[in-house]
């Protein structure tokens, strides 16, 4: 009798293991597709670690060499700075947001150079063209949302200095035009 209980327990464990294995195999074979996703906001201005992260971003450039690595590096920074700009503008920090947007544009503008550099290396550039196209579409979506949510112009008045006028919509429209231009240039 004790032997039958032990045997039944072993059979149950084998069946349970077999069923869970089949379920895992089926789930792993299903393709998972997610549209282009921007990163979670990193450290923001005002955080003690923010300046260190900016320095680290600049130092990382020397770590990534080669066209593919540089392309991924610049795209990653462009995404990061765009998310920073979006977050800052959502909290009405327009001066800091405009600065982050300029940095994002500078990084995104670097991408065609590295995609075009793949041709002499005989590397299939199609996956990278697709990646940049998806990134550009996501960036355009975010920028269009910001156009709706931000004022056309913002006047920043510091305590002991002259006021500065920031043409937010002009900056956002230039960023949109840059994303569209780079996307079209890369797809050609």
Overview of this structure, please?
It is a single chain. With 188 residues, this protein is mainly α. 70% of the residues lie in helices and 3% in strands. It has helices at 2-29, 50-63, 67-90, 94-108, 111-116, 126-149, 168-187, and strands at residues 154-156, 164-166. The longest helix is centred in the first third of the chain and has 28 residues, at 2-29. The model has no long low-confidence stretch (mean pLDDT 87).
What is the CA-based Rg, rounded? 24 Å
Strand segment tally:
2
Shape: extended
What's the number of structural domains? 1
Number of helices: 7
Distance between the termini: 76 Å
Strand share of the residues?
Answer: under 5%
- Going across the biggest sheet, name each strand in turn: 1-2
Poorly predicted runs of 5 or more residues: none
Any key phrases for this structure?
188 residues, mainly alpha, two-stranded antiparallel sheet, 7 helices
Secondary-structure blueprint of this entry?
Elements: H1 2-29, H2 50-63, H3 67-90, H4 94-108, H5 111-116, H6 126-149, E1 154-156, E2 164-166, H7 168-187
Helix pairs in contact: 3-4, 3-6, 4-7, 6-7
């Amino acid at each position: 009798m004790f032997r039958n209980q032990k045997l039944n327990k072993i059979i149950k464990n084998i069946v349970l293991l077999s069923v869970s294995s089949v379920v895992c195999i089926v789930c792993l074979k299903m393709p998972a597709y997610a549209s282009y996703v921007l990163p979670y906001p990193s450290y923001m201005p005002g955080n003690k670690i923010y300046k260190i992260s900016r320095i680290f971003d600049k130092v990382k450039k020397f770590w990534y060499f080669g066209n593919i690595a540089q392309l991924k590096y610049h795209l990653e920074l462009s995404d990061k700075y765009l998310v920073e700009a979006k977050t800052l503008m959502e909290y009405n920090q327009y001066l800091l947001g405009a600065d982050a947007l300029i940095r994002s544009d500078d990084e995104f503008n670097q991408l065609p150079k590295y995609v075009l550099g793949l041709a002499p290396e005989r590397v299939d550039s199609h996956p990278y063209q697709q990646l940049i196209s998806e990134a550009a579409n996501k960036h355009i979506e975010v920028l269009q949302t910001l156009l709706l949510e931000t004022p056309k112009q913002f006047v920043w008045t510091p305590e002991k200095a002259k006021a500065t006028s920031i043409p937010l919509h002009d900056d956002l429209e230039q960023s949109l035009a840059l994303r569209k231009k780079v996307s079209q240039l890369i797809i050609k």
